[in-house]
Amino acid sequence: MSHKRTEISILIESESERENVLIQGWVRTRRDSKDFFFLELNDGSCLKNLQVVVKREISEFETLKSIRTGSSVSVVGNLVASQGKGQKWEVLAKKVELLGDSPENYPLQKKRHSLEFMREISHLRPRANMFGAVFRIRSRLSFAIHRYFQENGFFYVNTPIITASDCEGAGDLFKVTTIDLHEPPRSEDGLIDFAYDFFSQKTYLTVSGQLEGEAFATSLGKIYTFGPTFRAENSNTSRHASEFWMVEPEIAFCDLQQDMDWAESFVKWVTREVLDTCQSDLELFFNFVDKGLEKRLRFVVERPFHRVSYTEAIDILHASGRKWEYPVGWGANLQSEHERYLTEDHFKSPVTVYDYPKEIKPFYMRTNDDEKTVAAMDVLVPSIGEIVGGSQREERLDVLLENMKRHCISEEDYSWYVDLRRFGSVPHAGFGLGFERLLMFITGMGNIRDVIPFARTPGSI
Ligand code: 4AD
Ligand code: MG
Q1: Per-residue pLDDT tens over the stretch 124-182
Q2: From the CB of residue 87, how many other CB atoms can be counted at a distance below 10 Å?
Q3: Ligand 2 centroid distance, CA of 393 (Å)
Q4: Whose CA is nearest to atom 17 of ligand 1?
Q5: Ligand 1 centroid distance, CA of 209 (Å)
Q6: How far apart are CA 324 and CA 338, in angstroms?
Q7: Pocket of ligand 1 contains residue 248 by CB under 6 Å
Q8: Residue in 216, 222, 246, 449 to alter for ligand 1 test, most ligand atoms within 8 A of Cβ
Q9: Cα 300 from Cα 267, distance rounded (Å)
């Protein structure tokens, strides 16, 4: 190839006319006139298309009849001020080459398609406006997350994906094995003998990098992980995926108050960063997905989050006079309907709920002085509910061992984790943010399946 293509995102911002630019992309539409035709070309670099005018006088004109919606083309031409309305620039083609044909059964013809239909063609949907925008924003959000932590002195740690520990203790684990499922090795009691498995023991896909993160936070001070996370929970909701990405900062010398401060500052900063850097893609969501979205995002960035203890939250729910599908009572987990009432109806803003009952939380959370609650916190946001879950960790050796006993967790299996309390233990805290949940919040998209490139949910891959 003679020269490099210029991306449409750059050309539409051009200050002046340009000669002999090379643009390459996919045809969104073609309109024919007598002596010329128009192509709306998109190359994925931005939401906008660039209009290309192909006149009869160019030598290949007759051979270009088969260019249709979905075709990939390569065009050399001059960038000139557009005669038509709606765009500043267009390209007058000098040379057009059809790279890849696209017959009439191309599924993305120009019309509105349902989100359900788009999920069936997840390999093609990033070529549609809305999904192109979702995935460009996803990329920027990812970058913003790294920037936030790097600029605040956190180190990025890659925690293992295959693990032998169950961090959340919820039992939602995918097993990892190379054992022949038809003829598994068995021990004398007839059970499968995992000593013969690949790692000589039972292993799983990780549900959280937190425990390993704690080892690094109590070495490097402030760390974060950002990676894929797997949960075999059979909840078929619009906010749960079996494979999702989680961001998990872990901070040494940190208590629950500071942990809540970090979570709030983090959510605000990355949201603002996306507002500042993804304006044109965000407009699509402001205009066509959720009319209240822009106001909501600005509100979140500008105003402090509310903070309320779990006990106060229960009182608010009782006082609401609502009929709940799941009963409200001290000691029960907050369900999505409760969380959404708190953030959408009562506080009308993001809210951080803290100090949850000990019985409903994992073994690693720090027991409060009341002995009934733990130093846990969840950040709830309108239209999603829980977006962040975190806690101060139990740093006292004796209390941790007691909690492990209560949760039937073997001290032997977790001896490395307990060591962190045996040698130079410090107060520390952290949280996990569901990356897709944040992306749903920022784009207003209502289903987690539509913000993951290739969604994995129960019964569907
Ligand atoms: O509240 P969770 O389960 O917390 C933990 O895993 C802790 N170990 C985090 C930590 O303290 N380091 O999960 C954290 C967040 C949730 O708030 C939610 O946003 C997201 O991860 N999440 C999911 N997102 C999509 N699909 C699922 N199935 C999710 N489960 C949790
Ligand atoms: Mg949680």
Answers
A1: 999 999 999 999 999 999 999 999 999 999 999 999 999 998 778 777 999 999 999 99
A2: 15
A3: 15
A4: 388
A5: 11
A6: 8
A7: yes
A8: 246
A9: 9
